[in-house]
Structure formats: structure tokens, C-alpha cells
Amino acid sequence: MSPGSHVLAQPVSETVQAERARIVGCAYDHADDIAADVMAKIRDELPGYGAADPGFLADVHDQLARLSRTGLGALLERKRVTPADVTYARQAAARRARSGLPLVDYIAAFRLGQRAIWKSLLAHAGDTEAGREAVLSLAGPLARYTDLISTQATDAYLEFQQYVAAEVGRDSQALMAALLGGALPASGPHLSVATAHGIGAERTAPLVVVTAVVLDRGADADPVGESGHLASAALARVSVNGLRTLAVARGAEIVAIPALARDGSADELCERLRALRAELCGEGIALAIGVSAAVTEIAQLPRAHQQARAALALLPEDGGVLALPQMTPFRYLLLRADDTTRQLVDPRIGTALADDRARGGSLAETIRAFAAADMNLREAADTLRIHLNTAKYRLGRIQELTGRNVRSVNDLVELLVAIELQAGVINEA
Predict the structure, then answer these.
(1) Contact 167/193 with Cβ under 8 angstroms?
(2) What is the rounded CA–CA span in Å between residue 331 and residue 335?
(3) Integer CA distances (angstroms), 426 to 314, 336, 405, 417, in order
(4) pLDDT digits 0-9 by tens, 187-220
(5) Phi and psi, residue 228, nearest 5°
(6) Can you tell me the distance from the alpha carbon of 106 to that of 93, in angstroms, rounded to the nearest whole number?
């Protein structure tokens, strides 16, 4: 019988069926114990697992418990087990291959898992004739289930080694097209490529989309050009979790999808992108880079791609890095301000700020500090390292020049908007 057939094939008496349901139900409730039993054995018997780190072993334990529940649950419900039911096993296989775990040890772990499940079933069978008959009727379905999951895992492991280790360009291109369409391949080499880059794996970290363009390409007829390919290769090396970043050149743009660290913060990634841009500038390659907000689902990647493009469009002509994860809604709205927005600024405010900027910008600096201190003037003075009386004088001067009271929320917001608009706001976010 093929791995996709019914887990329970031959008819049995109602008494044996009842015993089988009882036995399997008890084993199902002890799936974590089964996983712990397997973990103890594989660490003793399989060298590849012996020196693994705690995070790796926790992942293995979770997979064992999940596989046990899938198989035992199918026995309980007398339903068909298909490769689609154990897609997560393929993703785990790619993670094992990525970790360098020998294939022989990985496959041996499945046999140990089958023995542990069988041991649990026997322990709950009891000494009755119906119990013994029931547990014996489970041997075949359990073997077929183990064959199914080990076959799926082996295929995924080998796909990872064959396709991802070489990072075949066409596979990366096809995968990127699928991801930007909001879909993750269910199997095959493209799934292996995705998993290798931390995309779509179990408990994956949040993702962002990075879009970059090479500036001042001159008359280069190639929409990407040598500079673009060098930048794409450099982006592939930018990561925060030990994995290479999926990065491909698509027309005139370079698109990358980095997986963030487990805490979901994009700060470290953005710092590395800025360092990369500076490094490439030193090589004569100027980049403009837009970074989307973080997403947690593959279906959200098309929207993230549009966000990255929108961020890219807000950069000045000499490029830079504009990262939405490090930007407030207020700042983003000001970046998108048009000429009409600027014309709405009271001329008195504009004139006062222009004069202040020519004198060093102390008044604008005080307004910003006052807002950041939640309108606590003493705290703002401490931040600016000026005397409280100096801070009071500056606020009075601001009111005199602009006609605005900074202790009024509406007036304070109007002043902050004018300051950011005049500064051009583009202080790379």
C-alpha cells in the first residue's frame, strides 16, 4: 500500500476498534513524552545530535511531538495521511541540512521515533486479547506513516543540498517572483531555497522587503549592469540571523527579503544596510535603499514590496537608506508632504525658523527637546544641557517671533511640522 493510502485498511470488530481508539488516544496524550523518549535515544545513539545547541534540540523535540500527534491523530480519525499533512516535516528537513546534520543520522532518528511510538502503544494496550489484537493492527499503518514522513524528509534534505548549496540563479528568481506574488512554494527546490534563507520555515522570524537601485548608471544599456549585480551579491551577505539573504536583480531594481532576528527588530539590519551602502559608495556604487515595515506572513510580502518602493521614492537624488521600521507615522506623513503642505505654514513661523537656522538652530532644537520631554521644560533643559532659565527664555522668544504657544498641543504640532518641512525631513530614518 502506498504512503498516501488510508492509515487503517482492514476491517476489525467493534471491540477491537474501541480498544484501538483508546490505545491511540492515550498515546496521543503522551506525544511530548514520546518526543522526550526519542530525544534521549538520539542523543545517545546518533553522533550528529550529540553536540547540537539547545535551540536546535528544542526544534527537534517540537518536530518529534508534532509528527507523533499527526500520525496518531490520523489513526484516531481513520483518515488519509498525505504529503500535504506533513509539509512542516520538509521544512524541518531543510533546517537539518542547513545545520550540517548528517543525512544518515537524520533518517535514523525517524526509526527511533517509530520505535518510541510503538513502545507507547504497547504500554497502553494492556493484557486483554482485544488490546493485543488492536495494537497489532496498528503496526502496518504506523510503518507506512513512518515511511511517508521519512521519504518526504529525505527528499527535502537532498533538494536543499542539491539546489540551495549552489544557489542556482533561476531558482532564486522564480522564488522571488512567487514571494512577491504572496505565495510560498509547497515543495521542490524553490521551497528549499526559501527555507535556506529563513523564509517560510517553522517559527520564522519576521521579514522585510528591501528594494534598492543603483544611481548614476550613465549610459549602461543593461537594466541591472555590473554595479547592480555587485550590489545584489552584497545585499545577499547582509543578514542578522546567520543566514544569507535572498536577493535578486529584477529589471532596474534589486529586491531582497531578509529574515529578521527572533525579536523582530530591524535596527541591526538597517545599521548593516547603511554600512553596506557606505562601503559600496567607497567603490563608486551609489545606492538608494528602501526598507518596508516588518511582516509575519508570506501573503503580506506584496504589500511590503510596495512599501519598500514607496520608501525608495522618498529619498533624495543622492540616495540613502529610508527604513519604515525606524520611522514614526508623523515623520512618514511629513516625508510625503507636497508644496501645498509647505504653503500652509504660517509665514511668520517660516521666517522665524529660517532666521533661527542661520543662527545655529537653537530655537528649533529647544522645540524638539520640549516635545520629546512631553512638554516638561526642566527635562528638556537637562537634555539640552542648558539652564532652566535659558530654556524659559527660548520658549518666550519662540512665542514672540511666531505667535505660537508651545504649551498648546496644536501650536506645538504646527511648529514641529514647520521645523521638519524646512529641514527637508530626510535625515535617513
Answers:
(1) yes
(2) 6
(3) 8, 11, 27, 13
(4) 777 777 787 788 875 555 689 999 999 987 554 5
(5) -65, -40
(6) 8
Residue 205: other Cβ atoms inside 10 A: 20
CB atoms within 10 A of CB 349: 21
pLDDT surpasses 90 at 64: yes
Q: What is the pLDDT of residue 12?
A: 65
Instruction: Return the C-alpha cell found at 251.
Output: 529589471
User: Is a pLDDT exceeding 50 seen at residue 6?
Assistant: no
**C-alpha to C-alpha distance for 176 and 183, rounded to whole angstroms:** 10
Query: Please, what is the average pLDDT of the chain?
Result: 83
Torsion over CA: 173, 178, 180, 181 (sign):
positive
What residue type is assigned to position 111 of the chain? R
Name which residue leads in pLDDT, 6 or 328.
Answer: 328
Tally helices (H) and strands (E) across the chain.
20, 5
Q: Is 340 strand, coil or helix?
A: helix
Q: Which residue has the cell 504500554?
A: 123
DSSP strand pairing (287-291 vs 210-214): antiparallel
DSSP conformation letters of 343-394: HTS-HHHHHHHHHHHHTTSHHHHHHHHHHHTTT-HHHHHHHHT--HHHHHHH
Cα–Cα distance, 103 to 159 (Å, whole number): 12
Amino acid at 45: E
What are the angstrom distances between the C-alpha of 190 and each of 83, 94, 136, 238?
A: 17, 12, 40, 21
pLDDT tens digits for range 95-132: 788 777 888 889 999 999 999 999 999 999 888 888 88
